[in-house]
Design brief:
The structure is a homodimer of 161-residue chains. The first copy, chain A, is α+β, with helices and mostly antiparallel strands and 161 residues long. In chain A, 44% of the residues lie in helices and 17% in strands. In chain A, strands 2-1-3-4 form a 4-stranded mixed β-sheet.
């Protein structure tokens, strides 16, 4: 089992190869990622947005889902992700929710933008106050919505996540 | 077909009811969302993180995936999402990628935090420079990674998304 930097390069090269293969096979965009624990790949993912008609099917999301399925656990604590490209905001947040310990990435967001994949506008939107964003977010029925949380609190069978 | 504010309240109440039902059924957290187009629900989703062992299976992601599957299109342009709770950063970014036209939400992020679901730390992490975040992100092999984008550019069969 390779360790340290040799392993990091090996897993990143695997992600890059999968990304290139995804394009050549006509399955989707030039993005792939692998989730690793203890030097072993638990799950791999490629971008399948267009192939699967799923706007959330980015490489990192797919790799996280595959690894969590393989482990039978919604937590990937103790795992790292190796992505062919710097994660977009959706995938970065998914890495936090999955409790990954580190992100290794090869291409940068600037490289992706140079190839026509620009997620800077989402980054920029996040930095704005809610009412200044291009995607309107309207709050209604706040009081009524507490009923769902009240049911959760009363259920007392919470699994923290 | 109800329109305007009546419809907004109806779809939000549907999301709140689904969120409460998700807890009562023991399927997961108190969150649900519906995606709507032209006054009709195209897809519904509840939080299935623990039930599906999928850290990305938040209500909004599940609703977006269901609606995109129903439409047979990765773009949900012309649709709106109604969520029982203010979207977390992952789901907010997913709404942008899905090209949704508006987000209606009932409970606020502060309400969710009060019930034990705190995503403020992810918001806060996004605002930090990469090297100041608690989740390390390491860039390696940037040059090699261009090969995947080069393959994409040469393929000339790009579907923009």
């Amino acid at each position: 089992m390779p360790t340290g930097q040799d392993a990091n390069l090996r897993f990143l090269r695997r992600a890059i190869a999968l990304a290139t293969e995804n394009v050549r096979a006509g399955h989707g965009g030039p993005f792939a990622a692998v989730v690793v624990r203890d030097g072993r790949i638990l799950g791999e993912g490629v971008n399948t947005v267009t192939a699967a008609n799923d706007p959330t099917a980015h490489a990192e999301v797919n790799a996280i889902r595959a690894a969590a399925t393989a482990l039978g656990d919604f937590s990937l604590a103790g795992c790292e992700i190796y992505s062919s490209c710097e994660p977009c905001p959706m995938c970065l947040a998914a890495c936090y929710w999955a409790r990954l310990g580190a992100i290794y990435f090869a291409a940068t967001a600037a490289d992706a933008a140079h190839a026509g994949f620009d997620d800077d506008y989402i980054h920029d939107e996040f930095a704005k106050p809610v009412d200044a964003r291009s995607l309107p977010a309207i709050n209604l029925l706040r009081e009524e919505a507490w009923a769902s949380f009240q049911a959760w609190i009363e259920a007392g069978k919470k699994i923290p996540y």
